[in-house]
């Protein structure tokens, strides 16, 4: 234990769901000022809920059942509403796991940033805006001034995440709870963002509770770590000790599950490409609103890529470089403004209905933001089973069986009856994956499919991908920032920057001998756990 | 089991009472609701006549009971008609957009701008004055409102990512519309439908003035209410009785509507 | 003259042009501004108004009007026979659309062949045929009382501006949808004798009269209580008991000249059978209906001739009794088996609606199956005009002479489908009554007609209308009369309300 | 700017078919329903020759399509014709009446919105609590009172019993501001109460949806008070359906609130139209409906133009 008085002290916390089940059971840990504590653990183990409980912002239906959460010695769970409001934002800041849905779609970024600032500090609007711009710049948003007037939907996933982070750190809270803050960020940006956080701890003595799956990050930045499994505390101690000398088997499996370079993949048979982009370009009509002239934004500027059957191509690249946009355009969800897509050798520009339909059904997408891609009014089983509608000749029972099978494979057996809102971030992501692969499509664009998954589950999912590929030979474009994950599934890597491909090649070539400076920088910035994995 | 939500409890009770009233009238009323008693006109409530008598000496209780079934029939069918047609067209209009949307908007604006009085008179010519006529006239008059409300919600809902996800799976536009857009637009429709219920009951009273109402002497709450107008001071119970019936029915239906909406909303913790 | 009298009217006036584009409200307002040669008295007989005297030649073809001396228009100009000719020319010009043109050009009551002005104060009308109704026609309110107006009522192009007349008031501001305001005429010269109908002393006692347009009966009632209007000239029957009970309100009721009646289509397959019509009559308690429908204001009267008429005698006053047994017997005889009879009515006139409800319930007891259909007034009037109905409740506007009353219900159905009674014999009798000016002879004819029409039952008159007015207690001198139109002269308003 | 102007221009162009459709519907419907203006003017004493003469004079003896074409030609030149009943030109008559209606309706809908938004938000915030049930009950009660009753009761209480306000009449604002105000207080109050119910429920329903979203939690995490959360984050996102509703209500009422205008004896557009319908005053009915339709389309155009303000994801195109 640290010598100083802990800033946050969670004692024997239990969280119950209305039905009586506990999702968090008897966990205790401390966070001292100026300290970075990592909270790791399996997806769905209750990390997010424990963090939310510290701000008393539990979703409806989840109640603290026992225990205390002391902030500066005061129990958060019994404080008055008034006191809590004073605490939130200024004292305890929280970066939410799902940045996509955590920004108000109807408010400009500027308004959302300034709002909290002006609430806790006496600042003029100009001063507040200055501070906001400054912070945006620090989290690597280019053109921060222009960004103030834009709405959330006009940003890429990573950009939104950085805006979220900026909005929280702007307030310089005493305790920063960061729930998977960098899942959508490329390694370079990730490093920058974490540096800002570390800066804060140094200059302001801010304590950070960092929830993450990225053990590399943990090993590089955190002092202590807490490991959860299924709502129970497994192990806690200094990072050094836990990572290098894990006491518990669960911790060990977690570390062992770190993705490894997968050597010995069978070479992909030379074949005609399954899907091919030729000079694909995508332009967004306007980032301006309808009262000011719209400025078209070219997000993808002529990208060519061919994917053969059974091949897995990884796209890496900076946040906002156009990966998602390209992925969506590739499977025809987004209209392209130039170039063409060929599927099974036929151009989809002006294809007939049957071809369109084949294309549509054969190409699936795992959305980068799983939460908003799940219909809030449908149960998980129904969401996952929906693509089976297009599988003729399946009986109801067969369908249910398939759904059960795939849910089991992604580790969600028994969750079929839940609604999306009652899942953890990682669980939602797995739902999205299950939905995309249930019909064994010929081609999948997986947009950050494992970003919210802990190492064990991530491994499970990556294994699933590989298995499916081996069994059905589906091709896949795998968009990820996680070079570890990339190295374990991909045959080929494509590096994007600014809407263009800057480098592409074999996994091993790129990882071992990057040529483009940007690629080099990306690789260099990747945090490693510093142990022989 | 958990305690049912208060809105379900109160709403359910009120609606049950009203339905019971309507059902009772089929078998029994204290007096013949149509029988005049010219010696007993506008009597205040008494033991003999619980809620008094109207300007023709007819028993108010009996007429209320019978009126319940008449009013409910008209209201239910009108709302069903308007909601069904309005929702379908609104979905199409908001989802498909383009020329279809424009044409539907042109027609709905035209109907909206059309006064109910004229529409009713016109339909009277076609249908003759009967219950079908009322339902059709009011149904047509209210459909565009539903259409607009649904369209508005659809415009928002169709931009959601789960709608895109449905398309990505390969679902047809039609299926996506029904399965993913529609359920996420129900809240305003439920509100509108339950509110409309009241409007219809009241509008029927206006129509009976034109002869498009339920033909006399059969009572509806609406025409009882409008007939009671000159007696507001002299015999207030004449207006109060149907007025309260309408109010309580509406309250019941609205609360029930809320309960229903909650039920449809998975995020609502019960 | 001081104060402002506010009289409620239920709809805007149509124009200020007498007898042209008019309705009852327009007539009422215009009658305050212009006066005709003759006018009605309270008992609905005709008396000289602008004329000092009227001489009728022995053959009944020449009417000589001598104008009163010293009468000036409100603009100060003296009234001369030229003015009468000017107005008459405009009335009889088909372009103007005078309501009563058919009644002076030979299509209807009379045919005026010549009008001349031998001197400044004499006007002579020459008729083609004698008629008892010529003066009554000139006086008719819906003819604008054939009011004489000054030529400056029209602009240079001959377009109507506003009436400049000799009446007690001048036309002031007309704000459409809100009110019409009249001002006391400083140049008014009163007739001798007490105020009597539209004649007599009509000196204004208030500075202004405002005819306030209040369409809604309940709102009008509230306005009367609140003192926002002073007089409601035509009270809704349903409000009568309430006003009666209130001592702040002065309620007056006189029998009117209009009729509330039930009409049967004698060409209908079912109702064409006189036994069924008779059975219907027997099934109804007519006294009770009249009593209920008029809230006790009207006495039942089953004659086409309205109660206030001097021709309304014992014969007309008979009210047949209800006899259910006989009704049933007649129905059985006619082979009636409960076929539905569609009964048209409207809520526009509440008494018509009430009547239908009562009839339905009473006839039910005799086994007659009536189904009510409510229509808007325009549609009902249309059905009436075209005769396309089985039975309906209807209200007739005032007819001031019995021959006109008979004319209103009787005629050739083929030519005029709105007539309910088509009897050749009856038409002959009516023609006789029209030209005769001997009251005894006319009475005999009307009595005979009464018997005939009662035997044929083409319609059932319930009562001749009542004219009920309500005035605020602070209003002095307001009186209603059988014609029913409001009169603001001779009325004063106590200051302080 | 040019994009917006083009968009508005295009939308305005689309009003033409609406107006044409309304014209055709109205023109033929008023002539097909039974009842004849000539009979109504002449009354029960009319003789066939009188009827024929007046019919000819009013031009109603021509075939209906011919009448329609003639009328359309007139309208194209900005002339809506003259009223059959009183001969006045329709356009100024209508505009005069519209002023009265517009003042009252806009005030009432504005007030109703101002009441409904906080009430609905509060109810949603306390969903299923006592406050919520009370708000829902009050809103429902208000919705179930017919306007003629509510108006009459207010009239009786404030005009008659208390004598605070005049019972009938109207004074234009241009004439005397304060006196004008006394005349419109009751109608505005009545209309506000009538409309507030449905708007409150609409706000409540949408707010309930929004309140559960993540960004609301995020706003709370910033330390915003509940009031700020409701007003800044919930309200704008929950407002879209309410906004549509306001457009509908406004569009409907601007065409006239006949019942209300009758009860309060206001010379408004609604009464003009209803009177004209009952009098079968064809030119006035046609003129009024054309005007109402235009209003409707304009109000809804504004509503549509404002959508992106509440939901920037909805593009105007
Ligand atoms: N509203 C709810 N009702 C019931 N169970 C819930 C609800 N929300 C979350 N859960 C469950 O609570 C558990 C803990 O969720 P939590 O979000 O804390 O997980 P997590 O550790 O953050 O996981 P991840 O790494 O995937 O984000 C999960 O199993 C989840 O399914
Ligand atoms: N709807 C939109 N309107 C305007 N610009 C958009 C829109 N969507 C995305 N963009 C812009 O397009 C660019 C590429 O976005 P995209 O989502 O493809 O990035 P990405 O590579 O997936 O980034 P990340 O890794 O952060 O998810 C970004 O600069 C973004 O601001
Ligand atoms: Mg989580
Ligand atoms: Mg992306």
Explain what the structure shows.
The complex is a heterotetramer of chains A (533), B (270), C (497) and D (317). Chain A is α/β, with parallel strands linked by helices and 533 residues long. Chain A has helices spanning 47-54, 81-87, 99-102, 109-120, 125-138, 144-148, 157-169, 187-204, 215-221, 239-244, 249-256, 323-330, 353-362, 380-385, 396-409, 425-437, 455-472, 483-489, 507-512, 517-525, and strands at 8-17, 22-31, 36-41, 62-71, 74-75, 92-95, 175-179, 207-211, 224-229, 232-238, 275-284, 297-307, 312-317, 338-343, 346-347, 363-366, 443-447, 475-479, 492-497, 500-506. In chain A, the strands form 4 sheets. In chain A, strands 6-7-8-3-9-10 form a 6-stranded mixed beta sheet, with helices on both faces. A 6-stranded mixed beta sheet of chain A has the order 16-17-18-13-19-20, sandwiched between helices. Chain A has a 4-stranded antiparallel beta sheet with strand order 2-1-4-5. The radius of gyration of chain B is 22 Å and the shape is elongated. Chain B has one domain (11-22, 60-268): MetI-like fold. By secondary structure, chain C is α+β, with helices and mostly antiparallel strands. Chain C is built from 15 helices and 18 strands. Chain C is globular. In chain D, helix 9 crosses helix 10 (226-254) and helix 12 (269-278) runs antiparallel to helix 13. The two termini of chain D are 14 Å apart. At the B-D interface, helix 1, helix 3, helix 4, helix 5 and helix 8 of B face helix 1, helix 6, helix 7, helix 8 and helix 10 of D. The complex binds adenosine-5'-triphosphate (2 copies) and magnesium ion (2 copies). The site of one magnesium ion (MG) has 6 residues of chain A, from helix 1. One magnesium ion binds at residues 47-48, 97, 179, 424-425 of chain A.
């Amino acid at each position: 234990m640290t010598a100083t008085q802990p800033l946050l002290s969670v004692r024997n916390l239990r969280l119950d769901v209305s039905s009586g089940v506990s999702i968090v059971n008897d966990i205790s840990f401390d966070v001292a000022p100026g300290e970075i504590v990592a909270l790791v653990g399996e997806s769905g183990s209750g990390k997010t809920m424990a963090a939310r409980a510290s701000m008393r912002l539990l979703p409806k239906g989840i109640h603290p059942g026992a225990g205390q959460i002391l902030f500066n010695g005061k129990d958060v769970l019994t404080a008055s509403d008034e006191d809590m409001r004073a605490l939130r934002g200024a004292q305890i800041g929280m970066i939410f796991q799902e940045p996509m849905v955590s920004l108000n779609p109807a408010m400009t970024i500027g308004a959302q940033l300034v709002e909290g600032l002006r609430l806790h500090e006496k600042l003029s609007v100009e001063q507040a805006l200055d501070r906001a711009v400054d912070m945006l710049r620090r989290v690597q948003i280019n053109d921060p001034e222009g960004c103030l007037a834009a709405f959330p939907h006009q940003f890429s996933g990573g950009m939104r995440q950085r805006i979220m982070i900026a909005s929280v750190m702007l307030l310089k809270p005493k305790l920063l709870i960061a729930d998977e803050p960098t899942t959508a960020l490329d390694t370079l940006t990730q490093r920058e963002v974490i540096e800002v956080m570390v800066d804060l701890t140094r200059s302001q003595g801010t304590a950070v509770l960092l929830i993450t799956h990225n053990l590399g990050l943990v090993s590089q930045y955190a002092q202590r770590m807490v490991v959860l499994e299924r709502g129970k505390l497994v192990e806690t101690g200094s990072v050094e000790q836990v990572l290098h000398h894990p006491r518990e088997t669960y911790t060990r499996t977690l570390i062992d599950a770190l993705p490894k370079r997968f050597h010995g993949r069978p070479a992909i048979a030379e074949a005609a490409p399954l899907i091919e982009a030729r000079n694909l370009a995508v332009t967004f009509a306007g980032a301006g609103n309808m009262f000011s002239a719209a400025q078209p934004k070219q997000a993808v500027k002529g990208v060519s890529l061919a994917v053969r059957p059974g091949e897995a191509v990884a796209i890496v690249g900076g946040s906002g470089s156009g990966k998602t946009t390209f992925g969506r355009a590739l499977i025809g969800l987004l209209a392209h403004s130039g170039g063409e897509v060929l599927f099974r050798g036929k151009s989809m520009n002006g294809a007939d209905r049957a071809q369109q339909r084949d294309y549509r059904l054969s190409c699936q997408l795992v959305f980068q933001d799983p939460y908003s891609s799940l219909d809030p009014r449908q149960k998980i089983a129904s969401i996952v089973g929906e693509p089976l509608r297009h599988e003729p000749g399946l009986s109801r029972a067969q369908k249910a069986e398939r759904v059960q099978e795939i849910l089991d494979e992604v580790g969600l057996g028994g969750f079929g009856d839940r609604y999306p809102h009652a899942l953890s971030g990682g669980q939602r992501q797995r739902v999205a994956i299950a939905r995309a692969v249930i019909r064994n499509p010929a081609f999948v664009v997986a947009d950050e499919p494992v970003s919210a998954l802990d190492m064990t589950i991530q491994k499970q999912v990556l294994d699933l991908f590989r298995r499916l590929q081996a069994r059905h030979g589906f091709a896949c474009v795998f968009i990820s920032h996680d070079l570890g994950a990339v190295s374990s599934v991909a045959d080929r890597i494509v590096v994007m920057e600014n809407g263009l491909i800057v480098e592409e090649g074999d996994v091993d070539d790129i990882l071992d001998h990057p040529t483009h400076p940007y690629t080099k920088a990306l690789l260099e910035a990747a945090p490693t756990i510093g142990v022989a994995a | 089991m958990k305690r049912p939500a208060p809105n379900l409890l109160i709403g359910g009770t009120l609606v049950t009472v009203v339905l019971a009233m309507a059902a009772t009238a089929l078998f029994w009323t204290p007096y013949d609701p149509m029988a005049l008693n010219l010696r007993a006109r506008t009597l205040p409530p008494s033991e003999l006549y619980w809620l008094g008598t109207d300007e023709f000496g007819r028993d108010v209780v009996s007429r209320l009971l019978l009126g319940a079934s008449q009013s409910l029939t008209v209201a239910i069918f009108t709302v069903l008609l308007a909601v069904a047609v309005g929702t379908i067209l609104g979905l199409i209009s908001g989802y498909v957009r383009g020329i279809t949307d424009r044409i539907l908007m042109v027609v709905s604006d035209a109907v909206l701008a059309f006064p109910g009085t004229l529409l009713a008179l016109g339909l009277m010519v076609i249908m003759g004055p009967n219950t079908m006529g009322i339902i059709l006239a009011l149904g047509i008059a209210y459909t565009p409102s539903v259409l607009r409300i649904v369209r508005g919600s659809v415009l928002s809902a169709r931009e959601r990512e789960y709608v895109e996800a449905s398309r990505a799976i390969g679902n047809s536009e039609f299926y996506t519309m029904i399965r993913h857009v529609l359920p996420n637009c129900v809240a305003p429709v439920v509100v509108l439908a339950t509110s409309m219920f009241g409007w219809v009951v009241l509008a029927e009273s206006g129509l009976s003035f034109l002869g498009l109402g339920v033909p006399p002497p059969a009572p509806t709450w609406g025409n009882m209410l409008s007939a009671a107008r000159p007696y507001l001071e002299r015999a207030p119970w004449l207006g109060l009785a149907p007025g309260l019936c309408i109010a309580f029915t509406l309250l019941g239906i609205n609360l029930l509507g809320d309960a229903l909406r909650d039920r449809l909303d998975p995020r609502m913790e019960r | 003259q001081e104060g402002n009298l506010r009289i409620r009217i239920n709809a805007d006036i149509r124009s200020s042009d007498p007898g042209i584009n008019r309705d009852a409200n327009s007539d009422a307002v215009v009658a305050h501004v212009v006066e005709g040669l003759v006018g009605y008295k309270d008992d609905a007989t005709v008396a000289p108004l602008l004329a000092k005297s009227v001489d009728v030649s022995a053959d009944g073809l020449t009417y000589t009007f001598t104008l009163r001396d010293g009468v000036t228009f409100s603009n100060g100009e003296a009234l001369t026979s030229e003015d009468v000719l000017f107005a008459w020319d405009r009335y009889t010009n088909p372009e103007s659309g005078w309501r009563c043109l058919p009644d002076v050009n030979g299509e209807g009551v009379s045919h005026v062949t010549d009008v001349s002005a031998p001197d400044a104060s004499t006007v002579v009308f020459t008729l083609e045929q004698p008629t008892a109704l010529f003066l009554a026609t000139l006086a008719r309110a819906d003819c604008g009382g054939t009011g004489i107006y000054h030529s400056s009522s029209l602009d240079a192009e001959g377009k109507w501006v506003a009436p400049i007349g000799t009446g007690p008031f001048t036309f002031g501001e007309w704000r459409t949808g809100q009110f019409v305001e009249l001002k006391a005429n400083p140049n008014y010269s009163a007739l001798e004798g007490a105020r009597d109908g539209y004649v007599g002393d009509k000196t204004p006692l208030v500075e202004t009269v405002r005819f306030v347009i209040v369409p809604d009966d309940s709102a009008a009632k509230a306005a009367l209580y609140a003192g926002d209007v002073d007089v409601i000239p035509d009270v809704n029957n349903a409000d009568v008991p309430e006003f009666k009970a209130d001592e702040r309100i002065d309620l007056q009721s006189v029998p009117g000249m209009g009729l509330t009646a039930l009409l049967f289509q004698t060409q209908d397959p079912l109702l064409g059978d006189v036994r069924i019509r008779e059975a219907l009559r027997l099934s109804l308690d007519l006294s009770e209906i009249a009593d209920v429908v008029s809230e006790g204001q009207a006495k039942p009267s089953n004659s086409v001739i309205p109660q206030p008429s001097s021709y309304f005698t014992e014969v007309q006053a008979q009210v047949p009794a209800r006899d259910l047994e006989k009704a049933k017997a007649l129905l059985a005889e006619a082979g009636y088996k409960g076929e539905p009879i569609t009964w048209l009515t409207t809520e526009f006139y509440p008494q018509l609606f009430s009547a239908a409800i009562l009839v339905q319930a009473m006839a039910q007891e005799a086994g007659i199956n009536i189904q009510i259909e409510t229509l808007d007034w325009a549609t009902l009037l249309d059905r009436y005009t075209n005769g396309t109905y089985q039975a309906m409740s209807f209200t007739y506007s005032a007819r001031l002479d019995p021959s006109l009353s008979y004319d209103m219900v009787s005629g050739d159905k083929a030519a005029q489908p709105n007539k309910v009674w088509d009897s050749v014999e009856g038409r002959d009798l009516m023609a006789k009554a029209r030209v005769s000016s001997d009251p005894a002879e006319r009475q005999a004819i009307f009595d005979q007609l009464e018997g005939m029409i009662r035997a044929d039952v083409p319609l059932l008159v319930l009562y001749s209308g009542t004219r009920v007015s309500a005035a605020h207690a602070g209003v002095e001198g307001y009186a209603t009369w059988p014609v029913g139109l409001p009169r603001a002269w001779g009325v004063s308003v106590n200051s302080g309300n | 700017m040019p994009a917006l102007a083009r968009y508005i221009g295009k939308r305005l162009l689309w009003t033409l078919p609406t107006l044409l459709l309304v014209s055709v519907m109205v023109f033929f419907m008023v002539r097909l329903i039974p009842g004849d203006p000539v009979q109504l003017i002449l009354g029960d004493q009319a003789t066939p020759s009188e009827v024929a003469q007046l019919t000819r004079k009013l031009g109603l003896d021509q075939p209906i399509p011919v009448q329609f074409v003639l009328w359309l030609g007139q309208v194209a030149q900005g002339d809506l014709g003259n009223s059959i009943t009183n001969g006045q030109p329709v356009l100024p008559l209508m505009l005069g009446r519209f002023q009265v209606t517009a003042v009252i309706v806009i005030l009432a809908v504005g007030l109703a919105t101002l009441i409904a938004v906080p009430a609905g938000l509060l109810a949603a915030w306390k969903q299923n609590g006592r406050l919520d049930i009370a708000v829902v009950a009050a809103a429902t009660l208000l919705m179930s009172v017919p306007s003629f009753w509510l108006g009459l009761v207010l009239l009786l209480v404030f005009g008659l019993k208390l004598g605070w306000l005049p019972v009938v009449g109207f004074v234009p604002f241009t004439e005397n501001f304060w006196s004008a105000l006394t005349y419109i207080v009751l109608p505005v109050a009545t209309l506000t109460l009538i409309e507030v119910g449905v708007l409150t429920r609409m706000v409540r329903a949408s707010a309930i949806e929004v309140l559960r979203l993540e960004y609301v939690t995020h706003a709370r995490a910033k330390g915003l008070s509940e009031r700020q959360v409701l007003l800044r984050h919930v309200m704008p996102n929950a407002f879209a359906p309410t906004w549509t509703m306001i457009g509908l209500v406004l569009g409907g009422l601007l065409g006239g609130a006949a019942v209300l205008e009758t009860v309060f004896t206001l010379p408004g557009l609604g009464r003009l139209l209803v009177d004209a319908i009952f009098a079968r005053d064809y030119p006035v009915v046609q003129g009024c409906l054309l005007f109402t339709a235009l209003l409707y389309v304009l109000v809804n155009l504004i509503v549509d133009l404002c959508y992106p303000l509440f939901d920037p994801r909805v593009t105007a195109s």
